Amino acid sequence: MEPLIHLQGIRKSYSLGGAPLEVLRGIDLQVQRGEFIAVMGPSGSGKSTLLNIIGCLDRPTEGLYLLEGMDVGSRTDEELAEIRNRKMGFVFQSFNLLPRMSALKNVELPLLYSGVSAGERKERAYAMLERVGLAHRAGHNPSELSGGEQQRVAIARALINRPVIILADEPTGNLDSRSGIDIMETFKALHREGTTIVLVTHERVVADYAERMITLKDGVCTDGCY
Amino acid sequence: MDVIEVAAVSWDSLRCNKLRSFLTMLGVIIGVAAVILLVSIGEGARRYIRKELGGLGTNILIVVPGKTAKEGGMHMGASSVRKLVYDDAVLIKRRSIHVQYAVPVIVGTSRVKQAGNVRDTYIVGVTEEYFPARNLSIELGRAINSNDVEARRRVCVLGRTVKRDLFGDANPLGAPVKLGDARYRVVGVMQRKGVTLGYDLDDVVFIPTTSARELFDTDALLNITVKARSEQVLEAAKRDIRRILMRRHAGREDFTIMSQDEMLDVMGKVLNIMTAVLAGIASISLVVGGIGIMNIMLVSVRERTREIGIRKAVGAKNRDILLQFLAESTVLSITGGLGGIVLGGVTAMLIPLFVDFLPTEIAWWSVLLAFLFSAMVGVFFGVYPARKAALYDPIVALRYE
Ligand SMILES: Nc1ncnc2c1ncn2[C@@H]1O[C@H](COP(=O)(O)OP(=O)(O)OP(=O)(O)O)[C@@H](O)[C@H]1O
Ligand SMILES: [Mg+2]
Prior knowledge:
The complex is a heterodimer of chains A (226) and B (401). Chain A contains 7 helices and 10 strands. Chain A is of the alpha/beta class and 226 residues long. Chain B folds into 2 domains: 3-52 and 265-399, no CATH class; 82-253, no CATH class. In chain B, helix 2 crosses helix 11 (318-354) and helix 3 packs across helix 8 (234-248). Chain B is elongated and about 105 Å long. The interface between A and B is medium-sized, with 27 and 24 residues. Adenosine-5'-triphosphate binds next to strand 2 and helix 1 of chain A.
C-alpha cells in the first residue's frame, strides 16, 4: 500500500554567512497510515526541522517528499497553506494558542481558513473540546487555563479539520509529569481510533507510548528509519 | 475567509487594544473633523454673502468709479479715474427708459450728537428713490423726499440702532441732532433691516444726498444705485448706463457696473479659493493621521509575529494575513472617519451658537470627501505593514519571542 508520507534523501541546510550549516543530511522515511512514531535524538539534531518539513511549514533544500503520493516539492506556498489547513494538525511545546481568544475560538481557527460557516465552526469546535474533556472551559482564554488544559485545547485545534496526521513537537515539554501523562493518554486514545501521529520528544517514557521510534543524530537517521 | 470574517477578526483585535486603537484613530478623527469644519466655515461665509447680496433688492445695478477687472481687484483712487457725480445719476435716469431709479449715493462718517448722547456712524446721502429701490421701509415719520433733496434740507432718517442709542424709547420725530457741526432735524426712523453688503443698515443715518455734498464738502459719489424696470431689461439698462457714462467720460470706461449676480460671482471665486485652501490644509492632518496608522500597524505586526506564525501553521494563506491587517488599518481609519464626521459636524453646528460672526454650513461633499479620503488613507498606509506581515516565514514567525 502507498505510504502516507514518503521522504527520500531529504536535506536541509542554512547558509549562515560563510559555510552552509547542514541540519538534515539525507533522511529517508516512510510513514504508514495509522502509525504512531516517536522521534528522538539530541538537541540540535534536526528533529523539529524534520517535523516542520513533514508538516509543510518548511521546505527541504533537497530531496523528495510525497504526501499521499503527491509531490509536495512542486507546490506553491499557497498550496502548502491549504495542505497544512486540510491535512496537518500541529501541536507545539509552547501550546501556541492565540492569547486573546477563547478556547473555543482557538479551536475554530483552522476552520476559519477552510471556509466553514460560523455556525458549523462553533458546533464542531465545541464537539472537539468535549472530546478532549474541556467543553466546560470553552469560553476561557488560554491565560485562565492550566498548561495541560492549554495543550488539550491545542490538540483539539489540531484535530478539528480531520487531518491525515498529527505532528507534535515535544508536546509534554512544558508540562509537569501528571499533565504530561494526561496528554499522552489523549494521544494514545487518538492513535487507537486510527489517527496517524509523529511526535518529537526527549523523554523515554513519552516515546514509549509510540509503537515505532526513530532516532536522529547530526541530521541523519541512525535508527528506525525505513 | 469572507469579508465579514475578516472584519470581525480585525475588529476583535482592535478591541483588545482599546486605548491604542483610539489614540491612533484620533489622528484621523481630527483630520476628518478639520476638513468638515473648515469647509463648513467656508460654505458658511458663502451663504452669508449670498444672503447679504440678496438683501440688495432685485434688479439692482451698482455703478462704482474705477474699472474692476473681471477677475476681481479694484483700482481704487487711481488719478485717471473720473469720479461719479450727482448729474451722472440724473442723466442715467433721464436718458434710459429701462432705468426706474438712479440714486447718487454719498457716504461719509460723522459724529452724531443729541443731548449728550454721542455716536460715530455712517451718514448716507440718498434721494427719495433710494427707499423704494432697496425695499427699505419707514417705521416712524417719513422717508427723505424729493423736496428735501432739491432744497438741501437738513433733515435725517435714523436707523434703528442709532435711534435707540440717541433717544432710547423717546419719540425722536422733530428733535434736533448734530451731525458734526451742522444741525439736522429727525423726520423718520427706519424699520429693522440688518446687515447688507458690509454695512449694518440699522446703524446709519440717511440724509438728502445734496445735504451730504455740503456736509462732507465733496461731490464724489460712493456709487450710483440703479434699479432696472424688470429683470428682462437688466442687461439693456446696463448697456444704456455704459453708453451714457462713456459719453460723459470722454469715451473712457472708467467705471464699473455690477449686478447682484456678478458680485456673487466675484465673491464666489474668492471663497472657492479660500475653501480649497482650508480643505487642503485640513487634508494634511489626515495624511499625518495616516502615518500614525502606519506606525501603529508596524508595531502591531511586530508584536503579533507569533500570531501570524500560528495562523499560517493552521492554514492561513498570505492573502488571508494581508487582508486581516489591511482590514485592521481600514477599520481604524473608517471608524476614525465616522468619529471625525460626528465631531466635525457637531462642532460646525455649535460654533455659530457661540461665535456669532462665524456662520457655518456643513457641505455634504466635504463629508463624503473626508470620509473617502480617510478610508483611502487607511488602505494606503496599511498596505506596507500588511504586506510585511503576509510575507513572514511561518517557521521564523513561530519561533519569534
Ligand atoms: N533558521 C535557521 N537558521 C540557521 N540555523 C537554524 C535555523 N533553524 C534551525 N537551525 C539550526 O538547525 C539545527 C537543528 O535545529 P532543530 O530545531 O531541528 O533541532 P532539534 O533537534 O529540534 O533540537 P531541540 O531538541 O533542541 O528542539 C540547530 O543547530 C539550529 O541551530
Ligand atoms: Mg526542537
